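If your schedule permits, I should be very grateful for your opinion on a structural question. I have a record of one protein: its chain in single-letter code and its fold written as discrete structure tokens. Kindly check, if you would, that the fold set down in the tokens agrees with what the sequence suggests. I remain grateful for any guidance, and I place the record below:

***
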Amino acid sequence: MRKAESETPQRRKRKVKRPVSPQQRLEQQEKRNARKRLLTMSSFVLVTLVLTLAMIQMIIRSTAPNPKLFIVQRGTIFNEIYGDALIVRDERILSAPAAGMFQAAANDGEKVRKDAVLGRVLAPAGEDIWDELATINLELSTKQLELIAEGGMAAAETEFTSTDAKLLPLVNQLRMLDAKADLISGERLADRIQVMIDARNARLLDIDFDDAALEVLFERKAKAEEKLASAAKDLQSPESGIISYNPDALAGTLNGENILTKSAAALEQMTGQQNFQHFSPSREVRKGEHIAFLVRDIYQHFVFVLPGQKAVDFPLDRRYALDLADEGISIDNCELIQAKEEDGKLIVILRTESELEPLITQRVVRGRILLESDRGLKIPREALVFDGSGNYAKGTVMLLRSGYIYEESVEVQRMDENYAIISSPIGATYELREGSIIVQNPNAVKAGEQIGG
């Protein structure tokens, strides 16, 4: 019995120290490796998740629109109507006195007196003489410039200064047209500049430079002019007025009286068919051909045919402003002569004494009539938020005050495509004033959000 009891611990000891089989050791190693892989994968997934969330947050912050702030100021919005205007003047047609080469002696838009020489028509036999005369005049001008540079003739300097003052705005216009690649208008301006230079050179011929070589040139010039007289016919002005060398099919046919009797359809036809042609100041003409016209009255009329407009919007006792953006011209205080409804269209005729000379070569212009205006707090239209009901008389803006965003209601007095005139309703928590700051892109912020904190 004792022997059996004494053997039991030894047997147990032998059992504890029994070596692990290779199979068991392999299983244990695989379990440890599996735990390590699980911990590694868990750590990797956790780190990846944290980095992904951080990147998403960065992308959201980088792509979120930054609020654009706008300082509220007082401004004006106009109620305006656009349309093509037919220009009507009291014009008198001038015809070529003979066939041949016509040479203009003045500029479009220039005021001329009665019996002034507006140009001359050269017969074929006189063209060579004309070229000879042009060469002599060039030699005269060149010699005069040399004498001016040497002696400083006061009278000549005055003539140059006066002409330069007139040429400068035309040269600036020519540069602008060159930038716009407007070749037709640029050619017209270049012709005007050349006529002014030729006129200046002609006036310089009257100055006594007391030079022998110059006297010889003057004698040659006198002989050439004498020979030219028999081969040329002058075009003289029958009365005083403003000259244009660019007549069209309507020149001399319309005036301020007969335009009142024209139908809307007839006016639309005349407006749509007009393509004013620019003529060179030197060109071949036929005897009796219309080569120029004189404007005898100080007024010019702008005739609009406006679909869908009503005469009630054009009170006769009011004055209107007209903007001709393509021509760079704005005319205030136009008189309304007629506002007549016909076949669903409105005939509007405005009259003015202004800007007759700059528009002398135009028959149809694109115009904007300014009917009325509202003045008040002017904000960008995009800063307004509407409720989607179609009621644009009320809206909300995002107001920045003390670093926080407040959503405030406003009343819309007038609105165009880009701006709105607004005011705060009675009892507003924070009234909008001149100098208030609003958010121009309201979707970029929320009410209660802190800006700049």
Summary: The chain has a mean pLDDT of 83.
